[in-house]
Amino acid sequence: MYPLSEIGGLNLAARGLEIPTDQIFNPRATCLLDGICRVNGCTGSFVSANGLIITNHHCAYGAIQSASTTEHDYLANGFQAQTYNQEISATGYTVRITEAYSDISDKVLSAVTPSMSFLERTKAIERRRKELEKEAETNHAGMRAEVAEMFAGKTYVLFLYTYLKDVRLVFAPPASVGNFGGEVDNWEWPRHTGDFSFMRAYTAPDGSSADYSTNNVPYKPKRFIQVASQGADEGDFVFILGYPGRTARHKTASFLDYEEQIRLPYIARLYAWQIATLEAAGKDDRAVALKLASQIRSLANVEKRARGQLKGLDRAAIATMRKRQEAELQKFIDSDPARQAKYGTTLKEIDAVYKELTQSSDFELNIENLQSASRTLAIAFTLVDAAHERIKEDLEREAAYMDRNFDQTAKTLQLTVQDLHVPVDKIILTGMLERLAKVPGAVQLPALSGLINDADSVAPKASALLEHTRLNDWAFVEKCLKMTPFELVESQEPVLKLMTALYPTYLKLRQRGKERAGQLDKSYGELVEVKQQFMSQSFIPDANATLRMTFGRIRSYSPEDGVIKTPITTLKGVIDKTTGEDPFITPQRIRDLYAAKDFGPFVHKKLGQVPVAILYDTDTTGGNSGSPVLNARGQLVGVNFDRAFEATINDFAWNASYSRSIGVDIRYCLWITGKVYGAEHLLKEMGVSQ
Questions:
Q1: pLDDT at 555
Q2: Residue 254 belongs to what H/E stretch?
Q3: Of the candidates 228, 259, 280, which is a domain's last residue?
Q4: What is the pairing mode between strands 548-553 and 237-242?
Q5: In a domain? residue 576
Q6: pLDDT tens-digit readout, 314-326
Q7: Looking at the 3D structure of the chain, how many domains does it have?
Q8: What is residue 108's predicted lDDT score, i.e. its pLDDT?
């Protein structure tokens, strides 16, 4: 996952690229990167001069779900707007386009002194980053600035973004297409999912960023990506531009042990229980199912990824391999007195942090998930946290509550309130409290002891706590966002009283987290330095939600002995998988067109079918969802949406033999949009003829 600064030195022409690299990224001229955007936590591509964006169905899922009702069920039936006026506001969505970047490591680290404690170090760096972001936004009116840590505790880059706040839903296929195969096929190959949707970005009439307004006009990108309706074929060179989330390839074996033995098993178990609970609640009530749909989708994705990562960590023995590497590194450190003096205890210091995390995991994981698993408590935590943070000086606040971020925090909170279903949240809260009742540190907390000291009374007490809550009423919650801590308690809302009592515990956890971050940043910075000396090479920094490039080819793979999986699936596979029962339902119009072999110009010439999904050996992770899959000429041939199950451990290590990413073939997107659902106007807007 190469940062922008590395693209020029990759000799991409020798690997198959047919355009100059300065057409991909050029800070002095319009380039492909001007057509790439970040859509909330995903990636998207502008595919027309009028701000039309293609991204994943699962990335637009929140907007589709939010707009759906039992009368207008866009999740089940799909959505399309024939005109700009029919496009639906995607509340809580933002679009960002990278405009510039600069290395500011020296400026950030100038805030650190040798005498600082680990907590002081973290706070000093946090404040300096905020100062530099605020300064950059003052100097570049209308833009968004963010400082990204590239190598922990060592290098920092300031990114400038165009930041668009009016985003609208344009077209989404029904979930039977956009999520065909559901969680059965999630993280699997072969795949037959039409995971794509279209959105559009808007600006004020003068081109400036603006909140939603009927007076706004479609955004005019500097560059949009040309759609290659002929698609791609096996063996073709492809590259991806996008915003991969987080990887941990420079972390130590002790980190991997913590993940493999503690955190990932916990997440897999907890999320599986939550998913089952939420699905049961919506089984016979479509209105409830719609409320819970986004939450279930998000939980299911993480739960299956956790299981895949556990399987991959065990099978590839990554922790064992890293321990061997670290033993060799320690020998190298100890072989020189100067190195030994500077780096001799670095690995031990990192190990100590993860040992402490392991020892405190029972309490910390459960208390943290108490306020995230229960939506009511999540809302209460944001309100109490905001009340305490908003009375501070702006630069002293947690980032979510700074003036520059607070509107977005409020919009996100509004969506949480909108999706809160109190009856199911009673069950979730009860389950979390029952878990905490088995944790000694939790039982001793005065705020919780009355709720969990008697196992038989946990459920009725949890139910009573939420029985008359007003945290499912946005008008009340919006008022609370403007209250002081004292006023929140005086509101007589029971959940706010509970969270106020718990808040000191969460503050301690936050402070301890910052202390650990300070220690790890310092130690990981040292580790990168000495590893570079040991290996005589520089490294690519872990993904951190900043713009990256990766490249490869459309390739088959062999996940197990005697099995070869080819890299292109087709519409025939969709029909073959169709059972008529969820998640393998195919709309009748698709089956009719398949029977008539009405594929239009979107047929794969060798396979004689509409291609559905493609497999390639690029390097992707979460955040690359929606990333454009581009051919050697920089044209759009697919939309990335997943990885193979064996590649879920990409976050920890990448390997050419098993790391494969999955995208929906652009021909399937075009066939579904134009031929199946009649949105020819969108194909025309993209310059595609039928």
A1: 97
A2: helix 253-258
A3: 228
A4: antiparallel
A5: yes
A6: 988 999 999 999 9
A7: 2
A8: 97
Residue 61 lies in domain:
2-228
User: How many angstroms separate the CA atoms of 232 and 604, rounded?
Assistant: 9
* CA gap 89, 167 in Å, rounded: 6
Query: How far is residue 668's CA from residue 613's CA, in Å, rounded to a whole number?
Result: 8
Those residues whose C-beta lies under 8 Å from the C-beta of residue 135, and which sit 6 or more positions away, are none
Pairing of strands 197-203, 557-560: unpaired
Domain boundary among 228, 246, 261: 228
> Quick check: 231 and 202 in contact, CB under 8 A?
no
Question: Cis peptide before 583, with omega less than 30 degrees from 0?
Answer: yes
pLDDT tens digits, one per residue of 228-261 = 999 999 999 999 999 999 999 999 999 999 999 9
pTM over 0.90: yes
Distance CA 490, CA 479 (A): 13
Q: Do residues 247 and 543 touch, judged by C-beta distance below 8 A?
A: yes
* pLDDT number for residue 537: 84
Q: Is residue 370 part of a domain?
A: no
Residues 604-641 as b/e (b if ≥16 CB within 10 A, e otherwise) read: beebebbbbbbbbbbbbbbbbbbbbbbbbebbbbbbbb
Residues annotated catalytic, as ranges: 58, 195, 625
User: Does residue 240 form part of some domain?
Assistant: no
Give dist(CA 510, CA 40) in Å, integer.
Answer: 25
The Cα 268–Cα 260 span in angstroms is 11
CATH number for the domain including 605?
2.40.10
On whether residue 689 sits in a domain, the answer given is no
